[in-house]
UniProtKB/TrEMBL annotation:
The organism of origin for this protein: Thelephora ganbajun (Ganba fungus)
Protein name as catalogued: FAD-dependent thiol oxidase
Top-level taxon in the UniProt lineage: Eukaryota
């Protein structure tokens, strides 16, 4: 697979896309890169018509905003947000239960898992951003504390890119392993 961003079409020539719609490396609207509410807003029976290919750069995926209203029917394939929440849940939880003293096999497997994401993650723009980020910030798999912190920081990099608040990385165990001190999750 080539670098998705390298095939990003020229953005200067055509009309703007509907807000939130993301173009994939093939020049067509990218369903798994777009939030469902932008792909199919309430009251529409068809996906929003996309403008000519190449109207929005891959990086404008960051324009997608968060919403409390999930209008996506449960039987539909995931959009960029459902996939993102599920992936973060898996990754943070796996980090939270990663050993404090991992064996070489643990380290190798975790590195393999993390390094596979830029290649395999279905939202190619997300994957490309992650790959660039991981070049500057190589995964830390020495123990569960440093892995959880590293992952929290990578998630925060995405949060910032999307205009969201940073998560307090001191609270990763509370969020992904222990639950809050008030016992409400026990
Ligand atoms: C590798 C990756 C790259 C992505 N890139 C993009 C992208 O380029 N564009 C795009 O539109 N979407 C991207 N996403 C999806 C995006 O990150 C969100 O998952 C999605 O927007 C839904 O956001 P959310 O607000 O529901 O919570 P999420 O960001 O999915 O977070 C889920 C929960 O994790 C907790 N949390 C939040 N931040 C942290 C943190 N730093 N550490 C630990 N826990 C935390 C919070 O309790 C939150 O409710 C990406 C997802 C992944 C896994």
């Amino acid at each position: 697979m080539g670098n998705p961003t390298s095939s990003t079409p020229d953005t200067s020539k055509s009309e703007p896309l509907p807000p939130g719609m993301v173009i994939g490396p093939d020049g067509k609207p990218c369903k798994i890169c777009t939030a469902f509410r932008h792909w199919k807003p309430p009251g529409t029976s068809k996906p929003k018509k996309a403008a000519a290919a190449g109207t929005v750069a891959a990086t404008t995926v960051a324009a997608i905003t968060n919403s409390d209203t999930d209008i996506r029917p449960a039987h539909c394939p995931p959009d960029v947000e459902i996939l993102g929440r599920a992936t973060w849940t898996f990754l943070h939880t796996t980090a939270a239960y990663y050993p404090e003293n991992p064996t070489p096999a643990h380290r190798t497997s975790m590195l393999s898992l993390l390094k596979s994401l830029p290649l395999l993650y279905p939202c190619v723009h997300c994957a490309a951003h992650l790959g660039e980020n991981m070049k500057e910030n190589p995964p830390k798999v020495g123990n569960r504390f440093e892995l959880s912190k590293w992952l929290c920081e990578r998630h925060n990099d995405v949060n910032v890119r999307l205009g969201k608040e940073k998560f307090d990385c001191a609270k990763v165990d509370e969020r992904w392993r222990d639950g809050p001190p008030d016992g409400s999750c026990d």
